[in-house]
Specification:
Helix content: 55-70%
Order of helices and strands: HHHHHHHEEHEH
CATH class of the largest domain: Mainly Alpha
Number of helices: 9
Membrane topology: Multi-pass membrane protein
Radius of gyration: 27 Å
Main location: membrane
Strand content: 5-15%
Keywords: Membrane, Transmembrane, Transmembrane helix, Transport
Low-confidence stretches: 1-15
Shape: elongated
GO molecular function: cadmium ion transmembrane transporter activity; ferrous iron transmembrane transporter activity; zinc efflux antiporter activity
Number of strands: 3
GO cellular component, one term: plasma membrane
Largest sheet: 3 strands, mixed
Distance between the termini: 42 Å
């Protein structure tokens, strides 16, 4: 009965997290549409390519938020025969699309600004345009900070990526305001296109980082920060019965973690005791690692060569006394061999 209650509790938490993610992304989408309209208004008032860089990027914000909303909807679908690990990896694809769109926007901005160097146009209402961009940048910064904070709490790469994109947009907007002020006071209109090219380069770099992160997730690249945290928990809470843990591999699927590992147990334990120890490892990880984790644990029997680092008291089959303690580290826990090999 207690096991069923725990399962229902975890399911309720997951559903609540997904509901919060959908609500937050919807707020981001609506805000993005309103700010995009404001930025394009500033562009039409000023005819500044520099302002157009921010307006063009806002289109990406809206498209990315819309796709993120869809990806979170898809990620919450339960596991099925075609997707035995769930649909969480769609979040990485969402981040990939966002990164590609940002990169395309950066290339378009540089192309437009490069054309403007040879075919300059007159700029109007610079201070009004700077004021509009400054306000939109502040709003994006506050929303981005909120998304990153919630992304960490809810373990959502989509919220985190969207938030970092908005923080980048805020930095871009701040640079825009400074640049527009320089143009206004120096009267050097060529700065409009030169600064646009610099901002476009920064946007392309941001797009590259997001794309790189998404490809790493889609390719099951190891998240060493999460793995190190899991190993730290196992090391701190290890039991005498757990002789060693090895061949540990972790994969992230959306806001869930999947872990495969082997655990060496005394070879005289019966199946009931083995199941109990494996279950305790599962409970330990899910109680202390801040992400819902599914574990597939293979149990290995101990062999005489394990005795010199085994802490099991009153062992009836011990062939030699314990002579050393082996700390579980990234190196020995991730290798596919017992710690004496």
């Amino acid at each position: 009965m207690k096991f069923i209650a725990v399962i229902l509790y975890k399911f309720a938490i997951k559903q609540n997290n997904l509901h919060q993610q959908r609500k937050i992304i919807l707020i981001s989408l609506i805000t993005g549409i309103l700010l995009m309209a404001a930025k394009f208004t500033a562009y039409f008032l000023t005819q500044s390519n520099f302002i157009l860089t921010d307006a063009a990027e806002s289109i990406v914000n809206v498209l990315a938020s819309g796709f993120a909303f869809f990806s979170i909807y898809l990620a919450e679908r339960p596991k099925d025969s075609n997707h035995p690990y769930g649909h969480g990896k769609v979040e990485f694809f969402s981040v990939f699309v966002e990164g590609v769109l940002i990169t395309i926007a950066g290339i378009a901005i540089i192309t437009k600004a490069g054309y403007g160097i040879f075919h300059p146009n007159e700029i109007h209402n610079i201070l009004l345009g700077a004021s509009i961009i400054g306000v939109t940048g502040l709003i994006n910064g506050l929303l981005g900070w909120y998304l990153i904070k919630k992304g960490k709490i809810l373990n959502s790469i989509t919220l985190d990526a969207d938030g970092r994109h908005l923080i980048t947009d805020m930095v871009t907007s701040a640079g825009l305001v400074v640049g527009l002020a320089l143009i206004f006071f120096t009267k050097i209109t060529a700065l409009d296109n030169i600064l646009s090219i610099l901002v476009g380069g920064f946007i392309i770099f941001t797009g590259y980082k997001l794309t790189r992160k998404a490809i790493g997730g889609l390719m099951d690249e190891a998240d060493f920060k999460i793995v190190d945290h899991v190993i730290s928990v196992l090391n701190d809470k290890r039991k005498e019965e757990w002789i060693d843990v090895h061949n540990l591999r972790a994969q992230k699927y959306g806001n869930e973690l999947h872990i495969d590992c082997h655990i060496t147990l005394p070879n005289y334990f019966d199946l009931n005791r083995v199941h109990q120890e494996v279950h305790l490892v599962d409970v330990l990880i899910n109680d202390h690692v801040s992400i819902k984790t599914e574990l597939f644990i293979h149990s290995d029997p101990c062999v005489p060569a394990c005795c010199h680092y085994c802490s099991m008291p009153n062992c009836p089959i011990r062939s030699e006394a314990k002579t050393k303690d082996i700390e579980w580290t990234m190196d020995n826990v991730t290798r596919n061999k017992k710690h004496f090999e």
